[in-house]
Amino acid sequence: MRISFLAASLLSGGLLAACQARTGRVMDPDEPVGVDVRRASVDVLDGMMKEGVPLILASAKERIAGSGSTERPRLIFAGVQNNSDERLGEKKDYIYDTVDTLVGQDGTFDMVSRTFVENVMDQMKEAPKAELLIDPEIRRKVVQRFEQIEGRDYIRYILWGKFNNAASDTGSGTSEKKYVLVLELVDVKTGLQTKKMVDGRKAYTE
Amino acid sequence: MPRAVPSLATALLLAALSAACATTAERVAPARTAWERGDPGAALAFLDEVRPKVGKDWPLVDLERCSALQALGEFVPAADAAERAAQAMDDAVSPDLSSWVGAALTDDNALPWEGADHEKVLARVMASVSLLLAGEPDEARALALQVNGVQERLRGRKVLEREGDARPGYHPFAAGEYLRAVVDEGRGFFDEAALGYREARGFGFAPAAGEEERARRSRLVRGEGKGPVVVLYLRGLGPVLEERVEPVTSVVFMVASSILNDRKGSGLPSQAPVEVAWPRPRRSPLGPLSVAAAGKSLGRTETLLDVDEVAFRQAADELPRAVLRAVCRRAFKEFAKNTAKRAATDRRDSFLGFAFDLGGLIWTGVERADTRCWSFLPKRIEVARVELPEGDSILDLVPEGGVPVSLPVRVGRNRITVVLVVAPTPWAPPFAFADPRSTPREAGALPLE
User: Fold this and answer.
1) The pTM is what?
2) A133 to chain B: closest CA residue
3) Does A16 score more than 60 pLDDT?
4) What values do phi and psi take at B130, rounded to 5?
5) Partners of B389 in beta bridges
6) ipTM for the complex?
7) Touching check for A3 and chain B: CB below 8 Å?
8) Which pLDDT score is estimated for B444?
9) How many angstroms separate the CA atoms of B81 and A82, rounded?
10) Which of the residues in chain B have pLDDT under 50?
11) Do B11 and A3 make contact, defined as CB atoms within 8 angstroms?
């Protein structure tokens, strides 16, 4: 009897393993977003970007209106610095493209293409990575270079994000993580900076 | 009952056969040989070929692949492989039912490879090192922070397991803090970097170069037109697990008896020695690495992590549990064999009874210790920190007892230059790379002989 049970368990285990073929389907737009079990993903990143970009743009508009300028200022989006304990990997590009597109769609700024920026950095014998503009020293050098190539005040604003998280152990194998996206906009002419922060939370079970 | 006898015989035969199949450690052995002779390309090609054939043990193959990819300068795939493996090892802590049944019928090789504690931590360390060399310092920092998280978790778990026991628990090591401090210093966060180096010192890494002090005066160094260079050196070959005959101590025997006495119908434990996995250090004449430029000696690497030492400590920690599992499994197999034999005796079939005795002997005899381990790990992870004038330099990297190499680097005042030297063998030149921002493009990234 015990042996038959063992054989049946082994057989059903084998069948279950055989049934685990990879599948895929197109999701309806109104279906809830899947939640990543290990790290921040589209589930929290989308919400933070959609909330954070209008906030920083609203501040920027106030500042531009106050300056009395009628021209649309040019902006470089440098990307996101990851200060969290989770590797963003290819999601860095996803964040870049989403924020870059959301800012561009708003129409407040003329966006300078990432490829153009990185080509200029390459010519300067710097690593061609827009993200390096978060470093003040490189930012200064790149802005100067743009002035030499394109004329004075070619670049007026640089925007970047900083992504971070903090975990709380809530006991019994569960933990909660708070994710923070800080968007920083700096006026390269005046050095004045605007910062906006948005957050998202996730609970994880081991 | 008699009808079950043929199916039981088949099950015994299948179990014996599956135990006799090549283990993952044996499948990976040719790649290990290629690595030992300093040929990461051949090792990687073999690992890529074997990966689809090892089933649930793919994380082990991915860790070996990570080391080979590092030596080939493929840093992002190396980090991906190590991170994937690290996550899979976390998940393997709770294996499924079929794995448990498989382990009871055969040996521990049927369980998903969980990896030793130091391998779980080192998977993140190597991912972090790879990302530093890939020019992704943020991502390297994220992995370095995970190292600390995993170490805290392991330390917490060990404390719980060892409650009331005098044996030491998990010993955290300094590599995570050190790598985080390197990134922070590169970003210009000198106070955070100094704090990180101090934490690393708290974990037992106190280099003569005095990183903490140097980070504090980094601003000054930058003012002098110099930039810091950190050389990470993966020296030699780490230990590999091999089978060793281990006596069953009276404590383990008593624990096994109490476990088995609670299970109705289970067999009795025996005090005969069992085979368990035990690390074997691999001898290497390779010593520390001397770093020089323009004929001037700049420094020498110091040990950040002694992989041999942590592997031995881990094995000693794990030994009682491995022996206990082997004793319990042997008792279970004995019980299964005797049940089948009794059924055969009921049928008055003496040949079948003899066959069961023989089958049981083979079944127990082909059992193998779980020797799966990350065999491409270095013997030691060493670091040196030197300072060079801003601009292009040629670094002379001279491993003691090995073949020297030269590496062109471009040092910047406002960042940190990271160099990786992988030297698995003393007979071939080590593989040396600088991070992308510190690699003069016109000179190429490949080391010069």
Assistant:
1) 0.84
2) B187
3) no
4) -60, -40
5) B226
6) 0.82
7) yes
8) 43
9) 20
10) 1-2, 163-167, 443-449
11) yes
In whole angstroms, what is the distance from residue B223 CA to residue B360 CA? 75
- B97-134 b/e (C-beta count within 10 Å ≥ 16 → b): ebbeebbbbbbbbbbbbbbbbbbbbbbbbbbbbbbbbb
User: pLDDT digit string (tens) for A125-152?
Assistant: 777 888 888 888 889 999 999 999 888 8
Average pLDDT, integer, range A50-65: 93
Check residue B328 and give left, alpha or beta (phi > 0: left; psi -120 to 50: alpha).
alpha
Distance from CA of A87 to the nearest CA of B (A): 5
Residue B410 CB neighbours (<10 A): 20
Instruction: Mark residue B265 as left, alpha or beta (left: phi above 0; alpha: psi -120 to 50; beta: remaining).
Output: left
By the CB < 8 Å criterion, does B391 face chain A?
no
| Best CA proximity match to A168, nearest among A133, A117, A129, A203 | A203
Mutate one of B138, B187, B338, B411 to test the A interface: name it (highest A CB count within 10 A): B138
Residue ranges and CATH numbers for the domains of chain A are 38-205 (3.40.50.10610)
- DSSP reduced 3-state for B369: coil
Q: Inter-chain contact B135–A87, Cβ cutoff 8 Å?
A: no
- Phi/psi for A106 (5° steps) reads -65, -35
Cβ atoms of B120 and B87 closer than 8 Å: no
List b or e across B438-448, with b for residues whose CB sees 16 or more CB atoms inside 10 angstroms.
bbbeeeebebe
Counting one residue from chain A and one from chain B, the pairs whose CB atoms sit within 8 A come to 62
The residue type at B304: L
Going by C-alpha positions, the residue among B144, B130, B142, B136 that lies closest to residue B74 is: B130
Q: Which tokens is A73 given?
A: 């200022």
Minimum-distance CB partner of A85 among B4, B96, B146: B146
CA A49, CA A201: separation in Å to the nearest integer? 14
**All residues at 6 or more sequence positions from A52 whose CB lies less than 8 Å from its CB, including other chains:** A161, A181, A183, A196, A197, A198
Buried/exposed code over B179-188 (b: 16+ C-beta within 10 A; e: otherwise):
bbbbbbbbbb
Cβ-proximal residues to B209 (8 Å cutoff; 6+ apart), any chain: B299, B302, B384, B385
Task: For B435, name the nearest residue in chain A, comparing CA atoms only.
Answer: A127
Residue A188 Cα distances to A141, A146, A182, angstroms = 12, 12, 19
What's the CA angle centered on A137, arms A136 and A139, to 5 degrees? 60
Find tokens 């300078």 and name the residue.
A112
